[in-house]
Amino acid sequence: MEDHKKNQYSNPVISVLTGIKAHFVKQEVAGTLTENDRLDGKTVLVDGASSGLGLAIATDVARRGARLIMACRSGIPDKGELVKKRSGSNDVHMLHVDFSDIHSILQLAADVKKMGPIDIYICNAAVVPKESRKTKQGLEEMFMVNYLSKFYFINLLIKNDTFNRASGIPRIVVVSSESHRNPEAFDWEGFGRYKDYKMKTTVELYGYYKLLLTTFVVELSRRLNPGGVQNYSVFTLCPGPVNSNIAREAPAVFRPLMRLIFSLFFKAPDKACVPVLYLAASKDVEGKPLDYLFKMSRKYIDPKALDPANGQLLWEKSEKILSEVAR
Predict the structure, then answer these.
(1) Is the Cα torsion angle 205, 208, 213, 216 positive or negative in sign?
(2) Domain contains 4
(3) Are strands 233-238 and 171-175 parallel, antiparallel or unpaired?
(4) pTM of the full structure
(5) How far separated are the first and last CA of the chain, in Å rounded?
(6) Counted domains in the chain
(7) Residue span of the structural domain in which 66 resides
């Protein structure tokens, strides 16, 4: 097992330097995404699909023959038309969602259900705010968008029997981050509690919420596939540093330098999306209950996220918060 590498994402500067270093590190490739990895006849839901990595994922999904549903907060219908143009497919549909709002998530789950069963869900939406902000339900925005909304929405999809289990094993592909390794422990006492912070703390919290997300993914696979029975494939990955607009709220003085660094050392979204499409479309991972990739390299998941006790406690605390706000 690899040594834990702590504090690689503890502040914005170190995080960027870690991303640059990752650009030059050679890795053992877990598999290859080919043009033969098609999605014909599949319905694929992609969220956060109006820009950056999500837009690239959506375009490739449509190009591979899937019926595509784009869940977006903005860009309707323009980004859907752009995907049609770039992919050559007209089977592209858009639904609105604001993942900071419980009621909007509930509506999205109902809207997806009406569109018929889905085969693959690619969970991608995330935010990196410049400071803490409260949601309509009084939760901290990054906690809600980057973690709790995923817990809520995926469980709604399962509860609503939205996945198509008649023609194969459904896949849930969650975009996480190598920064999930950075936190030393869970803050169970302060779980979900609103706290004020500024940009200096944003990157650290981003890694913490990715730890919550990765722990949820592991626990989800454990619950959906009890006793070795294969019902769902639950995959997660870090795409590596992506030249996207996720850091658009960075202080204005730093944006020109960040744009330069991102363009030189970070992958373009259409390249960074390859591991996402590999986990969504490749026959190499068919039937696997759980997998984690860093770019195209298979890696271990941090032991904290693998611990069943942490998964159980996270599930209980998440359900408790939702019982208080999802009314």
Answers:
(1) negative
(2) no
(3) parallel
(4) 0.89
(5) 44
(6) 1
(7) 31-325
